Amino acid sequence: MTGPRSWIARRLLLGAAQTAAVVLLVFALTEALPGDAAVALAGDQPDPERIAAIREAMDLDRPALERLADWTAGLARGDLGTSLASGRPVGTYIADGFGPTLLLAALTVALLVPTGVGLGVLAARHEGRFTDRLVSSLTLGVYAVPEFAFGVLLVTVLALRLGWVPPTAVGYGTDLLAHPAALVIPVLVLLSRPVCSLARLVRAGMIDALDSPYAAHARRYGVPGVRVRYGHALPNALAPATQQLARTVDWLLCGVIVVEALYVIPGLGTVLMNAVAERDVPVVQGLAVVFGVTTVVLNLGADLVARRFAPRTEAAA
Amino acid sequence: MKSRFALGAVVAGVPLALALVGPWVAGGPGPRAASFTLGGGHPLGTDFVGRDVWDQVLLGGRSVVLVALAATAVAYLVAFPLGVVSALTHRAWLEELLMRPLDVLLAVPSLLMILLVAAVLTPGAAGLALLVALVNIPDAARIVRAAAAEAASRPAVEALRMQGETWWRTAVGYVGRCLTRTLVADAGVRLTGVLYLVATAAFLGVGVEPDAADWAVMVDRNRTGLFVQPWAVVVPALLIVALTMGVNLLADAGLEKRRRTWTP
């Protein structure tokens, strides 16, 4: 079997392997560490009673492999276990935090694509001139800045100096859509890094594509410039950008955790940070699996889409 | 591009100089004043426990810079042998064994991995450096391998082999040396990413004491006083912004130079 079908099969296989690996890694990092996990988890309150309770709750007396088998079987059924701290199912934690995080991520991606592609095309059209230099330097600079530093400066200027938007989302609960002003800073901060990387890739891809023989040929045939630019050059420029878009999911995830901590939004990032602080391992594991599998699936999807845009480029499989 | 290099050097120079020289200039721990005050002999006011913000700024850069440098160095120390061995070996299974697990590691979001470990252990500064290095190994090893594979297919390597040179001499003496330029260019980009992760982890409280003199921790802990005393947050935040921006501008200028010298 050769051709596109075998490529897709190989890519799907890699995705499956990555999913399995994420599950294994999450388990290994949190439970199979050397030493007594119960003692480590008791942390600041190492009284024997608490250690025994943790050992009981997590079945630490059984062999690690058996626990892994049980846990993965539970995952397959959609059962993520129960929290050590509250005894509630982990699923309810995820359900609680899901709304705000999904809203932030969806808004960011919805704004990311037009802004990033627009900036990239704008810079490419003015290659070497002032607009291009401005956009290129700005995207290069902002690209590297950690979200929390950028976010805290935005809060200082936009919320405290100018008073345009609230400085935190405290008091708005999970229904952020009803308070659009509270979404301005989080979305701006989440956009900062992905927009820059996307714009840079689209710019580079556009410049390459517009210089290529097929674009020159199309122009010679009298195809209008707009059509050459958006009908022929842009799809080719978008192929590497689509893959990058999925890679930015990694950043979006980091960004969501930071932004929720910074702006006090009760989403999945806050749930994760609270669970980390309380050493609530089942909740951390459940969230890590959800985040990890989302990343794997989105990367897989992006590679498939990128191949659709420019079938000849052998996307890494 | 020269202008971008100069801009990067200036922008990164200020925080770097503060980070490296600051701890020598800073005064000892003075008497604690009230928290979040302005003036009163403190040029930038006081922080959340009443320490002098300017002193904390002077002290707080070193940890960020040193942890980032250490993490970058460790990442290459592991990635270099991995990449070179898997590029030079003729045994396909060995290459698969070395590189495939890394593909899988790449799939895990970097901050998530750090937080997972932080949930179970309490890593210190060294632990944070190791974690950030671990997260960077897969990508670095791929780059080393790609560059080494290119160098290993050159006639010179063939000649060295036929002359019966040792594996060590071929791998380190020739292939390793060919990699220097790629690695120097990549190191700048990697350092940018590492700085980002180190600062973000410290902001989230991983690998640092809750009252550590660290720019990222300062931003986090002094946020509660943002209304009364913004300097305790704004100054360290600006320094982190300048540091990461400047390093990235420098890294890009380095890449550009390499691109131009290689493609005439």
**Helical run tally of chain B:** 10
- Which chains make the largest contact? A-B, 55 and 48 residues
Large-scale geometry of chain B: elongated
Stretches of chain A where pLDDT is under 50 for at least 5 consecutive residues are: none
**CATH fold naming of chain B:** MetI-like fold
Give the helix proportion of chain B (percent range).
over 70%
Portion of residues in beta strands of chain B equals under 5%
In total, how many domains does the architecture of chain B comprise? Answer: 1
CATH topology of the largest domain in chain A: MetI-like fold
Subcellular location (chain A): Cell membrane
Membrane topology (chain A): Multi-pass membrane protein
Transmembrane segments (chain A): 102-122, 134-164, 176-196, 251-277, 283-302
Main location (chain A): membrane
Please specify the SSE layout and strand pairing:
The complex is a heterodimer of chains A (about 325) and B (about 260).
Chain A: H1 4-31, H2 37-42, H3 48-58, H4 64-77, H5 90-125, H6 130-143, H7 147-161, H8 184-211, H9 213-220, H10 225-263, H11 268-278, H12 281-309
Helix pairs in contact in A: 1-12, 5-6, 5-8, 5-10, 5-11, 5-12, 6-8, 7-8, 7-10, 8-10, 10-11, 10-12, 11-12
Chain B: H1 2-25, H2 53-88, H3 92-106, H4 110-120, H5 125-152, H6 155-162, H7 167-178, H8 180-203, H9 215-221, H10 231-262
Helix pairs in contact in B: 1-2, 1-10, 2-3, 2-5, 2-8, 2-10, 3-5, 4-5, 5-7, 5-8, 8-9, 8-10, 9-10
Pfam family, one (chain A): BPD_transp_1
Subcellular location (chain A): Cell membrane
InterPro entries (chain A): BPD_transp_1_N, MetI-like, MetI-like_sf, TAT_signal
